[in-house]
Amino acid sequence: MSARIARQDTIPDIGGVGCAAVTSPPPHGCTWERYVETLVAEHGGLTALTQLLIRRAGRTTELPEDPGSIERALRRLRSRGNEPGGQYGRWLLKHFGVPVPLEQTARWMGQYHSRFADLPRSLRESQLWLWDRPPIAESACAGWIQLGLASIALERGQFSLAAERLERAAGLKRAESTGAEALTRETHDESAKHVLGDGAFGGESAKRARGAGAFGGESKKHARGGDIGELAFGGESAKRARVGGETLGESAVGTLDRAGFVEAELLAARLDSQHGRSHDVAERLARVEKALRSLRGEERECYHARWVDQLAYSHAHAKPPRYAEARVLYASIPEDASSAFARFRRSHGLAYCEWKLGRTARAAKHAQAAVEHAGDAGLLRFRAQALSLWAVIEPSRANSLKARIRDIRSATFDE
Fold first, then answer.
1. Number of separate domains in the chain
2. Is the alpha carbon torsion for 346, 348, 352, 355 positive or negative?
3. Do residues 247 and 356 share a domain?
4. Fewer CB within 10 Å: C terminus or N terminus of the chain?
């Protein structure tokens, strides 16, 4: 892969759904050199970074007394590539955390509703693997990478692997506790046979979009009920991670902020739903509803729309189905939301419910709006999903609509 193509495929335009603009990362992911250089640029030079490290560490850290020794150590750290960062790597992560551009990139790759999730699955997975290494794997952002990998496992129907990734996102340990080398050397499963939606209904997506998955097989041993939601994310642990009995701040490995908590709970609810654990799904979605209150802006709009979608899915697939209740939920998403993804989710859900309620004309109008909103969000897979539903609602237009779906899938190398 050429450098030009790699930059284009990674993050040339990260300003999509609910994310701020971030500089395109190089094709090798995030190395210690990139991490240190970002800090150097942010704080005005290596010498300035060294002095600031000394001040922030104070007497609590056994730094050398000679600033020159510290500066030389930071220069050596830059050459470590994706190897464990050792003591100086841990000191930088503890006292500086992950610079905003790198944190935003990791978050973008871990969110189901971002434009990153619209890329071919194999490309997303390869990019996530490149970030599933030090320094990111030793940082608070590691949780976002695990969430991205969990989402891919869900799409493939690899539920045990998805549960494992979610558990890691909830409570990753420090490198010295778990062995960063072992995490880096982990063998990744490359099989790809199944695809899941996000609670989307109708058309071809109705066959596979079960709205959620389930903890199955070996994952039942560690991911039953509210384990992830209550043990890993409850109360203040939603902001901090417990490592070796010590409550660590924002630099703790595996720490998920409130948005990360919501992302993880929504994915876990999909897993629970796959095996019919409706009580567990309801508990998780109740926790998400509460957590949404602390989110703001487009990020909240996106997560609120996803929460509505999964909650409405449970109504629409109840016995007997409660389509009217599901419709009310979708209508609660603001029609004038600033997030195109949220507007898509609203229109797509309303289209399905109106169709099931026998109101075909309204359903077709909402389906057409869903197609437009997905296009505005730059989310081609969701656009194809809306076209598929529209084709079911209006069979007379099915041939032309399915032709558009084929064009999208061909252009996006849909797997």
1. 2
2. positive
3. no
4. N
Rounded to an integer, what distance in angstroms lies between the CA atom of residue 125 and that of residue 158?
14
Give the confidence band of 29 by pLDDT, cuts at 50, 70, 90.
confident
What proportion of the chain, given as a percentage, has pLDDT over 70?
72
Give the phi and the psi of residue 242 in degrees, each rounded to 5.
-90, 125
Residues with Cβ within 8 Å of residue 303, at least 6 apart in sequence = 113, 259, 262, 263, 266, 288, 292, 295
The residues, ordered by sequence, that sit 6+ positions from 211 with a Cβ below 8 Å of its Cβ are 197, 198, 199, 200, 270, 273, 309, 310, 313, 314, 317
The domain of 50 spans 3-181+200-274
CA torsion sign, 209 to 336 to 19 to 3?
A: positive
Q: Are residues 343 and 228 in the same domain?
A: no
> Cα separation of 73 and 85, whole Å?
11
User: Is 36 within 8 Å of 92 (Cβ atoms)?
Assistant: yes
Contacts of 343 (CB under 8 A, 6+ apart): 333, 335, 337, 369, 373, 376
The Cα 27–Cα 326 span in angstroms is: 43
Which among 124, 125, 142 is positioned nearest to 133, based on CA atoms? 142
**pTM (predicted TM-score):** 0.75
